[in-house]
Amino acid sequence: MSSSSSQSLRIGIVGFGTFGQFLAKTMIKQGHSLSATSRSDYSDLCLQMGIHFYRDVSAFLAADIDVIVLCTSILSLSEVVGSMPLASLKRPSLFVDVLSVKEHPRELLLRELPVHSDILCTHPMFGPVTGKNGWKGLTFMYDKVRIRNEAICSGFIQIFAGEGCKMVEMTCEEHDKAAAKSQFITHTIGRTLAEMDIKSTPIDTKGFQELVKLKETMIGNSFDLFSGLFVYNRFASQELENLEHALQKVKETLVERMNEEKGQEKN
């Protein structure tokens, strides 16, 4: 059973796509008051969910909101934040991003937001598929970039801690270094397997079944997410090179062994 947050927050979501909706369900369940704005019209869905939907971003920013959660894609964050009429903000709010890269939003928000706005960079390491049966044991990374109102920040972090997430506090740079070696490489391998068009066979090993599952999971994610992990994580290029070098090394080792074996056969 999930534990609700001790503090009821007024939360505004910018970008009410699949991930925004996914987060909203748990936030509502915990008793928080939600509003949303998005380029697409989600007014009917928000009405069903008990969320106030704003077509006008100025009116959204002028509402009495404690926390503004940016649920845009990596590729569109700069455009979305750059086009927000931030002068409409009624009072200092905590801005939270949930992107899969961290240095990019950190630098952008520090540059674009008013100096009195708090900034929390986060990465819930799960989504609608992996988190469909609850968030217990799933990782939530966060970096308190600029926090003056500790109560609001702690209240937001409690949303995830209260659901049993594994809470990891680290810097945005540490996150991107680790994510380039893990998340980006996972997506790259999955996309590579898709390019090879691997499919199940009647004699699949367990290992191969896992590879097919990985391929299907990765191509289920948008290419915008995959390209964002590469374009906006400065450590990703090196990891891609490391992968290429590793594959070349494995190939050279195999060819060397093949030549040795064939040479022995002739002798």
UniProtKB/TrEMBL annotation:
One of its GO terms (molecular function) is NAD+ binding. Residues 233-260 form a coiled coil. Residues 9-267 form the Prephenate/arogenate dehydrogenase domain. It comes from the Eukaryota. One of its GO terms (biological process) is tyrosine biosynthetic process. Signal peptide: none annotated. Keywords: Coiled coil, Oxidoreductase. Gene3D superfamilies: NAD(P)-binding Rossmann-like Domain. InterPro entries: NAD(P)-bd_dom_sf (IPR036291), PDH_N (IPR046826), Prephen_DH (IPR003099), TYRAAT1/2 (IPR045011), TYRAAT2_C (IPR059064). SUPFAM superfamilies: NAD(P)-binding Rossmann-fold domains. This is Prephenate/arogenate dehydrogenase domain-containing protein.
